[in-house]
């Protein structure tokens, strides 16, 4: 694996520049584009800024201010971004209306132009810590909101690239605090994690939707320990759901991990990933194929520094911790993104006397994907008396067929690099997961009569 390149300072002003916390993402990448968003105090109050690279992070365009609402007090912060092709979807918390509300704007041309600001919430409570994800024309948003008297997780969605939005939908209902929601989507399956103190201390909870957010599973408690579990980050790869969080069960904050191989139906045991004498916190996780990439900030060196580790086998084994920053200041709140072989990392850093945005990249940090041999799928004849034939599968591959509720129907072995998948007898939407030794591929199947 190629090495990480040197730190690159992206902002140069005499005021603070802040990235969002780890439940949202402040960096996204697609093909040759890399986009970063943050809140910046160079104006009278905090405003949302963006910056983009069109050459894989080698060079960067000038800072661009996206909000213009501050007048001695109001502020825009907690900016989070999602990408779907050329569309960028940006959300943030804004106080221009006298209380904290969620606002949105979008770009349909890779960040060249942006829409007007759109207010998405309108209630007397505090709306904050948004997390957004997108897939094709679907855009999904979660945030924490105390309109009911305590913080609960709320959700809304758009089916047309952010042009129109659903009503607010309350996803949690308990007497404790539900906070720090993080959401991810793949193949129309939505996965949500947050931390919740309904049990007397903060624990990690999870729920999912298999129908684009129309209905949701019950809340599932994923951690059970006497101390705080919080700040979750979630990443998806095929049928795998990967989750990291900060946990204090060991006396100081450490990064923990668990995974599900069946779209969130069942989960592994908790696994401790860091073991340092001081706090490790604010993890950011991404996944593609069997590759996982994790960044966090860590106090083991006497001050906060950015660390990294990775797995190339769906989280079974992990590399040693790798220190990525080395400065006398504080480096914190990393956010990581990948596109093809490229890893992109952004964080906030006060080595220059005030908070600035820093970036670094690893051009071949995700290089294992180049080893993938994509299976050849013959034409899908969508009739219940037909079958799917798949050729070119490497030895050791497995195929799993799931129904619309996520229930596994079949597990198929590969013989002579070939598999035959009988279609279900009932009409409907089915998911075929093709798992090879080095990759996971999803194929939606529509069965009609």
UniProtKB/TrEMBL annotation:
Highest taxon of source: Bacteria
InterPro entries registered for this protein in UniProt: Sialidase_sf (IPR036278)
CDD domains: Sialidase_non-viral (cd15482)
Matches recorded under SUPFAM superfamilies: Sialidases
Name the UniProt record assigns to this protein: Sialidase domain-containing protein
């Amino acid at each position: 694996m190629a090495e990480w390149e040197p730190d690159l300072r992206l902002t140069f002003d005499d005021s603070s520049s802040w990235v969002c916390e780890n439940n949202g993402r402040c960096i996204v990448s697609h093909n040759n584009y890399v986009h970063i968003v943050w809140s910046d105090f160079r104006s009278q109050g905090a405003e949302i800024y963006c910056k983009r690279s069109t050459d894989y992070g080698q060079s960067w365009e000038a800072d661009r201010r996206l909000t213009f609402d501050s007048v001695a007090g109001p502020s825009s912060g907690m900016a989070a971004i999602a990408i779907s092709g050329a569309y960028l979807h940006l959300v943030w918390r804004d106080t221009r209306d006298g209380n904290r509300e969620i606002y949105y704007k979008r770009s349909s041309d890779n960040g060249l132009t942006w829409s007007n600001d759109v207010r998405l919430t309108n209630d007397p409570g505090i709306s904050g810590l948004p997390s957004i994800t997108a897939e094709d024309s679907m855009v999904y948003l979660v945030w924490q909101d105390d309109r009911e008297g305590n913080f609960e997780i709320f959700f809304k969605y758009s089916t047309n690239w952010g042009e129109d939005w659903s009503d607010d939908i309350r996803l949690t209902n308990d007497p404790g605090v539900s906070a720090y929601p993080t959401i991810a989507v793949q193949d129309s399956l939505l996965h949500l994690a947050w931390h919740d103190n309904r049990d007397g201390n903060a624990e990690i909870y999870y729920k999912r939707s298999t129908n684009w957010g129309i209905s949701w599973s019950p809340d599932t408690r994923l951690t059970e320990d006497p101390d705080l579990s919080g700040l979750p980050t979630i990443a998806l790869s095929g049928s795998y759901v990967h989750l990291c969080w900060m946990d204090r069960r060991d006396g100081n904050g450490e990064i923990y991990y668990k995974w599900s191989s069946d779209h969130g139906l069942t989960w592994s045991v908790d696994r401790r990933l860091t073991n340092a004498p001081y706090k490790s916190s604010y993890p950011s996780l991404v996944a593609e194929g069997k590759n996982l990439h994790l960044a966090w900030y860590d106090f083991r060196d006497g001050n906060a520094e950015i660390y990294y580790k990775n797995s190339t086998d769906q989280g079974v084994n992990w590399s040693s911790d790798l220190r990525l920053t080395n400065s006398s200041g504080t480096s914190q709140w990393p956010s990581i993104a990948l596109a093809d072989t490229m890893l992109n990392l952004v964080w906030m850093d006060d080595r220059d006397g005030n908070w600035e945005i820093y970036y670094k990249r690893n051009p071949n940090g995700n290089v294992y994907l180049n080893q993938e041999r994509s299976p050849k799928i013959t034409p899908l004849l969508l009739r219940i008396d037909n079958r799917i034939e798949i050729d070119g599968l490497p030895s050791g591959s497995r195929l799993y067929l799931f129904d619309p509720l996520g229930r596994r129907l079949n597990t198929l072995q590969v013989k002579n690099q070939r598999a035959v998948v009988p279609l279900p007898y009932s009409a409907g939407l089915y998911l075929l997961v093709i798992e090879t030794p080095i990759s996971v591929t999803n194929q939606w199947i529509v069965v009609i009569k």
